[in-house]
Amino acid sequence: MVHPHTVGESNPHLVECLRAIAIGFDEDPSLVEILARMRSAFDAQAETAAVRAARLMGTLYTELETAGVDEDAATLLLTRLLFLLFADDTGMWKSKPDLFKNYLVQHTTPGSLHTDLTGLFDVLDTADKDRRLAADSPYAVFRYVNGGLFDGTLPLPVLPPQFRAALLEACEFDWGTISPAVFGSMFQTVKDKESRRTGGEHYTTEQNILKTIGPLFLDELNDRLDAAWDDKAQLTRLHNDLGRLRILDPACGCGNFLIVAYKEMRSLELRLLTRRRDLDQMSGVRTGKVDRSQMTLDVTQHVKVTLDHFFGVEIDEWPARIAGTAMLLVDHLANQAMEEEFGTSPDRLPIKIAAGIHRRNALRIDWATVLPPSDDVIVVGNPPFVGRKYRTPAQAADMKLVWGKAYNVNLDFVTSWYAKALQYFGHHRGRWAFVSTNSISQGEPVPSLWKPILDAGWRCRFAHRSFKWTTEAKDGAAVHVSIVGFDRGRTTPRPMLWTYPDGPGGPGTLTEARTINPYLVDGPVVMVTKPGRPLNPQMPVAGLGSMPNDGGALLVSPAQYTQVAADPVAAKYLRPIVGADELLYGKKRWCLWLVDLDPADLRRSPVLQDRIERCRTTRLDSRNPDTVAMAEQPHLFWHIAQPETNYLCIPSTVSESRRYFTPAYFDSHVISSNLNYVASDPDGFAFGVLSSSMFMTWMQTVGGRLESRLRFSRSFTYDAFPLPHVSVENRSAVVAAARLVVDARARFEGQSLAQLYSTAMPAELLRAHEAVDQAVDAVFLPSGSFASEEDRALALFKSYAALTARR
């Protein structure tokens, strides 16, 4: 991006940015470090401009909506206008600036704007040799654009005067200050939040895109440039390799990944060409009569990173149009930067080469028809995030087509792109990476996804464990994602793993890994499956609590309690019930527990009669045959699993911010709902194990998540917990430490588990858990202690591998 400054004028913002990138005399930063400083200093300016640009586009769309212009026509019109606004502010016309603005001011009126614009569009789509314009035509100054952007008639109704006023206001804004990568977020005003959820679209910040393309290929290219800085032959080899690369985004949306990848690769190529010129200048190399140190006459012939090396597939028309347009504009910016350095650059008008953006369903086509696979292809992108709950029938059909017999209903929609990538590359090497929901490394779907990847010889080249995904879209969905990249047949570089020890919203910590396994941990490659029963038979069997499935008829809220308790017959059957909120937050709720209902009591209680009849009606109205069958026993919970003795109540979810898991003991008189799990634990051994850091690490590593919250699973986090055989001595130590936790909780009567296990745990409770950790750690590591969570995870996977090998 060019940042102009007029000598003698005040420019405090530029001064501030320059101060941020100042280099001390004693510093020796790498080129990458300098670029990182520049990005940090100047990106804030671009982000601020993007907010205003989005507001201007939103106003224009609102006026089009008022005029009755449909969504497709409105987005096509705004895409064309965006191109013209951008061309005005970035010197694209080559003749004089503000051609479009001047045309609007001098040759349009509020009443004729709709026909004035369509007339201009027709001229922009007509080659010079085919134009029939008078010498004084206001259209004569505009160059032929080509490239399909202005192809086809766009019928427009009479536009409101406010639209022209808003368009003129947009002309006053400097569109050259924003990155084309944010165009998608500007056009997000066209679609509502529900359609975003249905389509699974998430518009991406450049920072997050760099988290993907950086470790996949860009960092390596920058490192090679640094290493080749003084070596002409190595620079030439790198340049040739740049020219061979092809980038495919098979879920490109508005083209953010392609835009940023192209911008970064052109920037790298420009640095390479500049360095090669400087080396030639220092050595005095001349080619014929042309001094290669200048390279002003033939620099355009040296550009090897071109738009036609970039390909995208997008199912919807308007994002595909935006992607194609944005790629043209980012190419123009790259050419401007080249012209600043060399005094000349490729002239892209009329457009002769463009990115290959295909409007098709990426899951229904052979990607090879878009771009033939090769070792030089890089597949990258941010496919739709659509969980099982929100999947449309069409999306489910696409998944079944892609996965075939390997289809697993619990796989996220995004995994279909993984399966297609495997099919696409075949025996080729290449590289690929996708931004995905963190479910790809959690719970039951892991073996279904990862086994075919590993069996095909791919290795995890890099990964970002779960972190909070930020988008530039207004009201963008809050999601927690992982980024995973793959290559094949390589041992270098070492796999790079980013973890987020301060939580999904915190900064990432980078480590070099030996092997990144399917759970995005540096450890043995294992895939956890359902063992059926606890891997360690010393752990009790756990199961879901009792499920009412009653439409609320058998449950009694605090507001209803007085009425139900006033009925002396119904009051006999009132029992406390513990769900998720009652367990964690200490809330109160009751139920009618009627397993021993006396028929005579039913006849004497209007409350029981009313509630049982409501339960019967609810069940009869169900589409589930099992629920309908239970209408014959409407006084009973649909599923009963209440222990007859005191029991351990296990929450089904826990906040990722809690240091320890929060099970609790209850008397058999207290009913546990199906929102919790229950287990018999007479001596407190299971309570101790579940209250340990080892179990919390296991949940964080292999368990599923509800958004970012950790989800307890009987199969994957409980039964599969790889607890080695526990000696009598070690068991006694765990039980004794568990009693300390129970006693410490009791000293804070009146405080809920949520309060006790907030970020600031009471010191006494924290010491009790540390005693539990010491006792449970000793089972895994008889001597010494774990230095980090990564060490715990490694020990757990080694134990799992050992336990399952013996089964």
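(the above was protein one; protein two follows)
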Amino acid sequence: MKNTLHIFLKELRSFFDAPIAYIFIIIFLLLTGAYVASNLFIQNVASLRLLFEVVPVLFLFFAPAITMRLVSEERRSGTFEILVTKSIKTGEIVLGKFFAAWILASSALIPTMLYLISISLLGSIDIGPLLGGYLGLVLLVGVFIAIGIFGSTLSDNQIVAFIISIVVISILYLLDKILIYLPIQIVGIAEYIGALPHFSSLSRGVLDTRDIVYYLSVIILALLLATMFAGRESSRAIWKLRDFTWRQQILRVAITAGIIIFLNLISARMFTRIDLTTNKAYTLSDVTKELIESLEDDFVVKAYFSSELPPPYHNHRRVVHELLEEYRANSGGRVHYEFTNPLSDPEIERAAVREGVQPVQVKIIRNDQFQTEKAYVGLTFSYEDQHDKIPIVTTLDLLEYNITSCMKKVQTKQTRKIGILTGFSGPSLDKMKVLRSTLAKQYQISSVDITGGKAIPRDITSVLMIAPNRRFTDAEKFILDQFIMEGGRVGFFINMVAPDSQFIKGRYVDLNLDDMFDSYGWIINPDLVADARCERIQMKEDIEELTSGRESAYPLIPIAADFNQDHMIVRNLSQVMFYFVSSVDVRLASIRGVTGEELIRSSSKSKRYSDGQIVIDPRQNFAVETYTDRMIPLAATVEGSFRSMYARRSDAELQKIAGVRVDRSLIASKSPSTRVVVVGDGDFILDDYIRKHDNTSFTMNLVDWLVDDIVLTSIRARDVTPKPLNEVSENTRAMVKYMNFAGPPGIVVIVGIIRMGMKAARRRKHKSLFK
């Protein structure tokens, strides 16, 4: 250990006593800063993921550049043999050089903390992915350095050593990118061997012992190989087996490799994970645990998974198995699961299809050709006499939410029914497929038609009014009013201004609902809210079709990111995109005896367009610098006991409104405590937009809150998407970019000058002592 420390200090001193270390770090930081600064406000999120994207790629080249001379140059000049003759073991030399190079490479990451400071001033950053990402970078760099030293031992020529190192590192780094071209039998092994998936896991903010064991294993194996080849007698002895003690060396490497493989196999089955994210997004939630504890009977999960799945489903089985094991471990023996391959037996496949699991088409390479085959990645759930399913596990991001939703659904004896209002020239149900399919996982969905005064079915608990486009008659308003008075919940998703067919101007949509809204305690204004934080669209000269062409910011499609963090609906959401949204006002709520709460507001650089004819031409100059409005409410909730707008109408008026003689004793004048959601946009939940940003989560949270079913909202609200940056001026953006680009290398230049000055001062002092 003493010799290793001596070599380490000697190499580290040689790096920093010469300009090479500073030149390396400055070039590295200039390239990193250029990437981060140029993309920071394009991605516009409070995260260091830009850093975590570019650093591995840069170190793929920089690590071999640092290490290529460490052994090869010393062997060529003969100094390596001198070290060996001084009773210093080859392994001690390799280990000392490795730690010195690792410290050098890792120290290049220290100035990047300036990115963290600047981003933290612009937004709220999650510390978990930050810590995990930096740890992942240090371990990844350690692997690259170890491989680089191994490459340096294979040749006395530095260029050859550099090329060998890059080739080996590239294979390890890019292995997961070519999984689709590999035989299915080895896809899992190849993915585990690849270095990038382990780094991606750490950069999420999850410390997994499997990832750490993997990195340490590769480092140890690479250094062992480096020690073996560094100990050869000459650069050509490796090709002359009679001059190389290969039998003893290979045996030692084989034993060590066997131990490493065994440890990785053990760690794959016995592992520990620490979730560092702020909202514990990768840990089984308390809501799920409470639901598991409430089980009174066995909850049985059948996982129908084909064996040897190709990408993108290759790791689904592992992730599902790990999550189900967590459910089982917290259930006290109530949760049971089994994995079955439907393709192994026709009877099992028929049972899977009968239970609702659908096959997916996957591409594999067979006989040097792409072929399409079917596979299964579905789950079924049974509890008492209730059944549910996830036909296809398409994404792993919301896996816990989907499984827990099914668990809650089969535990609930009676599923709540939600109606979608139709018949008012609004969007067809075909444009709400995503909404309907998502809601169907938890609720029964049906259409509701009140045209002509038809009554709302009594088994409907909540009604969603989505972008109606014609006037409501008095009879239809009366039906809605009485539905609310009887305790019904309504989601009003209203377009007060809609674009014309030429996409030039916005037209006011007269729904004849203003008096109803006013009587309940809110207003949806006949305006459009423009926001400097907005979507960028592709524009053609023919502006009726905004699909391709040059990209430009369009303030009338705002991206809202200012949320009421005290409300469960929007807590932990990142950003929601609206499509021609109007402002809402719930200040009348308190006067009407109910409680109104704003949910989402525009940014600090906003504007209301409310002239007689609103111009929406995306080619116009929106003059964002004139946007002086701030925090304009776009969505709100109203809760309490509402008074009917028809309570004081005469019998004659009621008869005229309803169209038939009405028994006043049957008319409810005041509701029990109920809930209403008000959003100044009805298009953000249509298929064209609901997949944008957090629109789906926001919509589902609204519905859950309406039906008083917020249990699962906390799971869905554990969003791992980084928060957006605060809106700042162009001058501030420019200053942040310059600081991130020039600041880190500038720090290194200053440190280098100071160190070089101190070294020169010591040299002058020594000279003066010997004069």
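Reviewer note on protein two: The chain has 24 helices and 25 strands.
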